[in-house]
User: Which sequence fits this backbone?
């Protein structure tokens, strides 16, 4: 379909269609939305010549203030560089969905594609990106991507299972789990992995030793302090993030409980700081850099060709054993 | 000067001049260099109309794998967003100076300006950026910027002084200092601040308690282990970075020395992780995010007007007291 036919169908001028395509702000919202939906319905493909081709990949965080932002940036940057592209890093400023003015910027910059971290894209934004043939992929550590969006996640359930099996193999049976917020699917997946490992080993799960909290240090510290002050305290705690695990280490230190001699601790994420805590954390490696690399590869290949179906993948997690875990009642391994 | 006059002076075609200006690679190196130097000599200013104006700020790291990269990205992103600009993050891939192919990318992208972290720019790259009127500023935590380059640093000497004064005020006199590598000026500045605080208080500096090392955890751990295993061990250690301080905490824990009851520890940088260690670190706040914000502001204002002189500034450092320091021989404060 040619643009002038499209303009006729929308009942607007050719210059208005062009303004919409270029993300200009001087178009009435209703008009924009009518043109968008016609563009989308006809599967309009922006033509890009060698001169007009952008060399940017857009990476959008709801909030740059996350401990693992750097691991994601590094991954996208690795793949962009391999492909002669540069990475634009944007903080969208809202926790779950990019701010509306973000999309106007993307339409102006016309990147090869967009990698979104941990964000739900508004239906309107999806339509706008699709109508310009700007592909997007979600890097999704939370484990609950929308079904119609290409995404790269990781195996949360399996991570919970591995962490708990490791503790069981060390002889622990009174094992606590502190997981993430109740409204994030990854919290449930990791906890379900914990329960399956316990059940398979014939061990009961004491519900007083299961807690939900935010993924930060305080969440780990407060929950651990309560559990470790109770009469029949756990000999091991599986924490839902490395930050929570740091909180558990701090609670143990302030209560005079030695890690790992008297308490084993497993974290989750394997951020750089997991190597630097004292003792160094045994933790589940979430391959954030690899997830970001895969997302960048997908977005670049989507830019080159129309996909058959929505690409989705979960990368494997693996346990990294360091110094915060030991046999129950025993000395460090 | 018009471009055709410039082409005549260089003895090349107008299209060759245009290729050089646009960072194209199909120009012989000798030709490129001749055109560059004529552009530079005549102070050629690229004309940018409202249409051709880029909306990008380029942020270049020698290596994204530094713990404080995120704090810098956040600062540049804050200021870019205020100005309706986006940030391109590039890893130049060499430790001290951006790789040669990086400059070609910048010339193609034509950013409003370039913020370089901790890099020495090759003379040739300076000429290339200047001839296109692309301003650049160095964010320089190492404290040794080239004199002809706009830069934003921080007060390293004063940081060392404040950290040491705090320990002296707590009654410590046997104080060790572990600083950074011998070939970085910030290591010397912080150590000189330490010496001045000791001298001013009439305290001798025991040279067996002064060590140089890299800024990583291992550097802190090994030096602290040696110092703390000696007969007359220090009661306080000033570490040159938060990572070194984490290493000191680990050495103390493995030797059964309680922090802060038996050993006070001060770090440097005030990275996020300083709040998460156990105990939380007393440390010198290096305003990395503010340094990046200032650098971005300078680069944007340089893009708008020619400066009178080379802008240079050092931002203040300040001590943040947390839980890793206490009065000598006493309980936590």
Assistant:
């Amino acid at each position: 379909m040619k643009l002038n036919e499209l303009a006729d169908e929308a009942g607007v001028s050719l210059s208005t269609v062009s303004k919409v395509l270029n993300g200009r702000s001087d178009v009435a919202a209703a008009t924009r939305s009518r043109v968008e939906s016609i563009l989308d319905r006809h599967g309009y493909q922006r033509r890009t010549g060698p001169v007009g081709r952008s060399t940017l990949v857009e990476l959008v965080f709801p909030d740059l203030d996350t401990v693992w932002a750097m691991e994601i940036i590094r991954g996208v940057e690795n793949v962009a560089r391999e492909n002669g592209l540069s990475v634009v890093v944007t903080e969208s400023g809202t926790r779950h969905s990019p701010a509306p003015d973000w999309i106007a910027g993307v339409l102006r910059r016309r990147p090869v594609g967009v990698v979104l971290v941990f964000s739900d894209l508004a239906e309107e934004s999806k339509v706008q990106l699709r109508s310009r043939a700007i592909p997007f992929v979600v890097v999704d550590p939370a484990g609950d991507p929308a079904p119609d969006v290409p995404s790269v996640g990781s195996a949360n359930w399996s991570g919970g299972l591995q962490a708990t099996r490791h503790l069981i193999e060390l002889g622990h049976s009174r094992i606590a789990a502190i997981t993430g917020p109740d409204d994030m699917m990854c919290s449930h997946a990791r906890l379900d992995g914990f329960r399956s490992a316990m059940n398979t080993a014939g061990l009961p799960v004491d519900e007083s030793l299961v807690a939900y909290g935010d993924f930060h240090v305080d969440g780990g510290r407060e929950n651990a302090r309560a559990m470790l002050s109770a009469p029949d305290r756990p000999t091991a705690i599986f924490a839902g993030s490395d930050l929570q695990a740091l909180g558990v280490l701090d609670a143990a230190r302030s209560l005079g409980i030695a890690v790992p001699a008297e308490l084993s601790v497993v974290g989750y994420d394997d951020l750089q700081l997991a190597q630097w805590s004292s003792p160094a954390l045994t933790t589940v490696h979430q391959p954030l850099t690899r997830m970001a690399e895969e997302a960048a590869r997908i977005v670049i290949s989507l830019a080159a060709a129309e996909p058959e179906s929505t690409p989705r993948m979960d990368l494997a997690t693996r346990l990294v054993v360091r110094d915060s875990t030991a046999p129950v009642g025993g000395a460090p391994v």
About this structure: The first strand of chain A starts at residue 56 and ends at 61. Chain A touches chain B at residues 55-56, 64-65, 67, 69-70, 73-74, 77, 81, 86-91, 93, 105, 108-109, 217, 243, 246-247, 249-250, 253, 272-273, 275-279 (CB under 8 Å). Residues 288-304 of chain A form the longest helix (17 residues). Residues 46-52 of chain A have pLDDT under 50 and may be disordered.
